[in-house]
């Protein structure tokens, strides 16, 4: 008989045993790595929580692949992280399969009383991210602006959220030139989705999610290779819906207004042309030099509209620039902000969830590159080469209400569809939904 010492099982690796006891015929033993590593300042990560997520996911995947139908998992002294890792690993997009694979049930083994609440919380947060993954993964013909709004209503109304889908005529009354311009090339009508979650507490927070349900690039059309991935150009909108699901499921005491401009960006005889000049809700004129830089146009109007809610802060999230992937790969979400205090809260939230963020500059130099033009106020791409993500953030800054704390999250680097984490399966990743939930939670009255 071979005896395998525990310290020989590497972190995240799994060894399977059969027939050790009657109740559990198949047992997976997973390595957690070195104990008590805590917060790593260089990685900006809670290493212990991340190790638990990785171990829980590895154990789940091993047993699921062996055909085990009922999987029970220990808490690893962190039931919330264990639940997150296993639940995130369990996600598979099977909505369109004629023959679906059986899913394994998941439960906590011999839970202590305090572990039950932690376990349930981890399930809720991971389920919120899996919801964002499903919305982003759905093909564009099955996730139009109208369908997305209906899905959000089905998901969030039972949790007490108020859903207000606004139509084209409403947007025209608000003079939302950016939002209306992007959707002109599509037969699908645009929808400006407004969602309210009134959980209590002081003040109102505004979350804005980019909702381009398919992005061909418009007249400035994208290359055909991998264009199908642009079904997930509404990843920001999906993350916002997932965030509201997580907050409402846990009854977090905050007041949230979510603004989700939903459009398709397609070429046609009615589509916006390179060089066209339009006006945003705040009256600023915009030269649309590249119709594939469309997300910032719809976000501009959403940022202007956010002023009507007198927000404590505004956060927008979008798959905005390919340049962010060049800068960060899939390791983190890029952040631009006028509030160091809010960024510190966001960074701590990300360190806990394992879904990290990284701050980029919001310098005047980038604003000069998008505003110093003689014939219009703002250019949607800006001058010069490089700094694409920074110039995009500077563009958005022109539409942020005065004296309002603001964060812009460019999530293009983490959306997928490739596998970006040891506990996330292939497909759209739903990041950074759990980080957004934790960020809001840390400012709640609960």
Overview of this protein structure:
The protein has 446 residues and is α/β, with parallel strands linked by helices. It has two domains: 6-128, Leucine Aminopeptidase, subunit E, domain 1, CATH 3.40.220.10; 143-441, Aminopeptidase (3-Layer(aba) Sandwich), CATH 3.40.630. It contains 13 helices and 18 strands. Strands 7, 8, 9, 10, 11, 14, 15, 16 and 18 form a nine-stranded mixed beta sheet that branches. Strands 12-13-17 form a three-stranded mixed beta sheet. Strands 1-2 form a two-stranded antiparallel sheet. The protein is globular and about 75 Å long. The model is unreliable at 1-6 (pLDDT under 50).
Note the beta-strand portion: 15-25%
Distance between the termini: 54 Å
User: How many domains?
Assistant: 2
In one word, what is the shape? globular
Can you tell me the CATH class of the largest domain?
Alpha Beta
The averaged pLDDT comes out at 95
As a percent range, the share of helical residues equals 25-40%
- Class of secondary structure makeup: alpha/beta
